[in-house]
Amino acid sequence: MAWILTATSRTGQPVDPVTKAPTDSITVYDQADLERRIAAAKTDPRDLIVTVERID
To answer: Three-class SS string for the chain?
Structure first.
């Protein structure tokens, strides 16, 4: 099972480390990793909007 996690900064700060865009996506393959990333996003100072899409 895998998920696409997308994070978008509400403050407009860069999220993508390469392009410096305020939105970035990553494919996550582990449930524990997904939960860790969601928890980290909740306390991120960029005030992230996080969406998760399950892919098979």
So the answer is: CEEEEEEEECCCCCCCCCCCCCEEEEEECCHHHHHHHHHHHHCCCCCEEEEEEEEC
